[in-house]
Each structure stands twice: as structure tokens, then as C-alpha cells.
Write a structure and sequence with these properties.
This protein has 6 helices and 8 strands; from the N terminus they run E-E-H-H-H-E-E-E-H-E-H-E-E-H. It has one domain: Gcn5-related N-acetyltransferase (GNAT) (Aminopeptidase, 3-Layer(aba) Sandwich), CATH 3.40.630.30. The protein is of the alpha+beta class and about 200 residues long. The site of coenzyme A has 20 residues, from strand 5, helix 4, strand 6 and helix 5.
């Protein structure tokens, strides 16, 4: 998997550069601005109400505790995309990470979403996560394609599991990727590695 030292710059299809960096508490006000600018249609099926100061407080607390890792994509200094890896630090699902990804409408189709997703998958593998999941509904075609490009497949469909902000029920699609194989391959490579025999 391609790696990018964060913060780093990726070149979008429109020729602009996007800076990708780990989100920090100081990004809070800009993150709230990013989510508040999102049209209601895009917020219909978000897990949380990301437009409230209350949400931001919980989000920053999770960044602090390590329950969430977030990468922001900035173009011209403004956040245009954000991806978060949510993980439980305790319990039976602590080997699983959930990815949530959003790109500003005006910035879509330029490669930012795929790049953000790629970076968070890399960070998750670096942290020893075995399995990654992403939740979406059937109308989120771009999301399905983005995650499929990174090796995810539809693992489950839960009928009527999502209630959008208008109360309409939708089917939840769970896309998953077992990255433990990548992890094992890396471990066996490291197991074979002898610094004294390393060649350049
Ligand atoms: C999913 C999302 C993040 C993709 O962001 P993006 O910056 O447009 O993505 P990219 O430009 O990197 O495109 C990635 C792939 O998505 C697919 N895609 C992008 N736009 C698409 C569209 N309008 N229709 C169908 N597929 C599309 C393509 O396969 C594309 O790869 P390709 O260009 O190499 O063919 C963005 O559409 C979004 O924020 N959607 C709403 C939120 C969401 O669905 N989140 C996922 C739930 S976790």
C-alpha cells in the first residue's frame, strides 16, 4: 500500500494540491464549519449529528483517548474532506475499526476521498487493526466504489437498520476488509529481516 508521511501533499485531478494531516484539537472549529456547510441530503444518514458543538466535544475527546484517529484533507487551507477511524479500546471488537469518510460536494471526483480512505487504512494497519468496516446505504454508490477499490466487499445487509434524519428507514450495507492478512505478511517479512544482511 502506498504510504504518505503525514502531513503530506497529494495532487488532485484538477491540478490542485491537498494537504493531508492528522486532525488535532486545533482543527475543531474548521471541522465544525466543514460539517455545518454540508447539505442536509449528505447528512441524512450520518451516524451522529456532526453539526453540534456537543458532537465536536465528544469527537475531540475520542481523538485524545485514541478511540478515534482522523485525517483531514485541506485545499487552500480549508477542510474539504475528513476521514475517521473509530475503534473500541476494550471489549470483543477491539480488533475492528470503523471508517467514516466525507468529502465536500464541490471537491468530489478529484481523488480526495480515495486518498483519505487509503491513508486511514494504512494507519489502521499500522495500529494492528485486523478488520475494517464501513457503513453505508445503497444510494451511496461513490462510497461503495471507493471502498471496493481498497479491497472491501459487502459483508452484510441489515434491512431497515438506518433511520435517516427524517425518520425514513433504510437498509444498512456493511462493507468489510480483513486486513489481518496484510498484517501477517508484514510480520513475516519483519521476521525474515536481518539488519546485518540488509542490502541497499
Ligand atoms: C464517498 C466519497 C467520500 C468519495 O469522495 P470523492 O473525493 O468524490 O472520491 P474520489 O474522487 O477519490 O473517487 C473515488 C471513487 O469513487 C467512485 N466515484 C466517485 N464519484 C462517483 C460518482 N459521482 N458516481 C459513482 N462513483 C463515483 C469512483 O469509482 C472513484 O474512483 P475513480 O475516479 O478512480 O473511478 C464522497 O462521495 C462522499 O463524501 N459521499 C458522501 C458520504 C459517504 O457516502 N461516505 C461514505 C460512508 S463511510
Amino acid at each position: 500500500m502506498e504510504t504518505l508521511e503525514l502531513p503530506g501533499i497529494v495532487h488532485l485531478r484538477n491540478g490542485k494540491g491537498a494537504t493531508l494531516a492528522l486532525a488535532e484539537a486545533s482543527d475543531g472549529p474548521e471541522l465544525l464549519k466543514f460539517y455545518r456547510a454540508m447539505p442536509e441530503e449528505d447528512r441524512l444518514v450520518l451516524t451522529d449529528d456532526v453539526t453540534t458543538a456537543d458532537w465536536l466535544g465528544r469527537f475531540l475527546a475520542k481523538l485524545e483517548s485514541g478511540e478515534a484517529i482522523s485525517v483531514v484533507g485541506k485545499v487552500g487551507g480549508a477542510i474539504r474532506g475528513e476521514v475517521t477511524l473509530h475503534r473500541a479500546l476494550h471489549g470483543w471488537s477491539r480488533h475492528v475499526g470503523e471508517i467514516r469518510l466525507n468529502v465536500d460536494r464541490a471537491a468530489r471526483g478529484q481523488g480526495l476521498g480515495l486518498e483519505l480512505a487509503r491513508q486511514i487504512v494504512k494507519l489502521a494497519i499500522d495500529r494492528g487493526i485486523d478488520k475494517l468496516v464501513a457503513h453505508m446505504v445503497d444510494s451511496q454508490i461513490a462510497a461503495q466504489r471507493t471502498f471496493a477499490k481498497l479491497g472491501f466487499h459487502q459483508e452484510a445487509e441489515l434491512p431497515g437498520h438506518v433511520k435517516d434524519i427524517h425518520g425514513k428507514k433504510r437498509d444498512l450495507l456493511i462493507y468489510a476488509n480483513d486486513v489481518s492478512q496484510i498484517w501477517s505478511a508484514m510480520e513475516s517479512l519483519l521476521g525474515d529481516f536481518r539488519p546485518d544482511r540488509a542490502t541497499r
